[in-house]
Amino acid sequence: MKVAQFTFNAFQENTYILYDNSLECVVLDPGCNNDEERETLVKFIEDNNLKPTKLVNTHCHIDHVLGNKFIAEKYDLQLEAHEGEAQVLGTCETVSNMYGIPYEGSPSIGKFIKEDTDYTFGESVLKTIFTPGHSPASLCFYCEADKILIAGDALFQGSIGRTDLPGGNYDLLIKNIKEKLLVLPEDVTVYSGHGPSTTIGREKMSNPFLT
Q1: What is 131-180 written as a DSSP string?
Q2: What pLDDT digit, counting tens, does each position of 130-150 carry?
Q3: Which residues contact 35 (CB under 8 A, 6 or more apart)?
Q4: Among 72, 86, 135, 159, which is 20 to 30 Å from 168 by CA?
Q5: Average of per-residue pLDDT values in the chain
Q6: pTM given for the model
Q7: Residue 165 CB-density burial (10 A; 0-12 exposed, 13-18 middle, 19+ buried)
Q8: What confidence tens digit (pLDDT) does each residue in 61-106 have?
Q9: Strand duo 51-56 + 79-81: pairing
Q10: Burial class of residue 211 (count of CB atoms within 10 Å of its CB; 0-12, 13-18, 19+)
């Protein structure tokens, strides 16, 4: 499995395209919310002859869903996320108005992703890991074969997701990171919702929230 990273919108959110030799791809947390950002994403898909087959949110905070409507309509995809994020998605219009961010809306979650199950596309298999704490029902996606973790906003290089938003829980997030993420092999690459990638080993050794 390969990972392409794009940093979009005023929140500097990381949007990911996951793809493999089948040329099927997953558009994950699309944060694109202007023509230039949308064109960047589409051009990568077209230049690599990819076929988007899934639209996924790790969680449904506003910065991760700004491109949901565009991707869903362009590629005729339903939105997939954990059932527990539906209420968060429903608040995005209010949040966008509060921040003054253009938001065209998002389709409702059309398919619920269950925690602790295999999530597949193309030739790839990802394990879903339930990591609430930053948001009520956020998911991480772990590809054991390629040692890749898509962490959403649970874990960052040298930091963790903020827990002062509605539905946040600091103690729960720390517990989930330590018990579900830091137990992965140390050479697993962590792709976060903001900032640069890191590794499990680096965060075990030096993340001030976890040491």
Answers
A1: -TTSSTT-EEEEETTTTEEEEETSEETTEE----STT--HHHHHHHIIII
A2: 999 999 999 999 999 999 999
A3: none
A4: 72
A5: 97
A6: 0.97
A7: middle
A8: 999 999 999 999 999 999 999 999 999 999 999 999 999 999 999 9
A9: parallel
A10: exposed
Q: What's the number of domains the chain is made of?
A: 1
**Length of the chain (residues):** 211
Any domain includes 211: no
Q: Print burial letters for 128-144: b (CB count within 10 Å at least 16), e (below 16).
A: bbbbbbbbbbbbbbbbe
Enclosing domain of residue 40: 2-206
Closest-CA residue to 151 (of 79, 110, 200): 200
42-70 exposure pattern, b = at least 16 Cβ within 10 A, e = fewer: beebeeeebebbbbbbbbbbbbbbbbbbb
Q: What is the pLDDT of residue 6?
A: 98
3-state helix, strand, coil in the chain (%, to 5): 30, 30, 40
190 is written with which tokens?
Answer: 């962590």
**71: in domain:** yes
**Of 9, 5, 23, residue with least CA distance to 121:** 23
CATH number of the domain enclosing 162: 3.60.15.10
Q: Rounded to whole angstroms, how far apart are CA atoms 123 and 18?
A: 11
- pLDDT score, position 211: 87
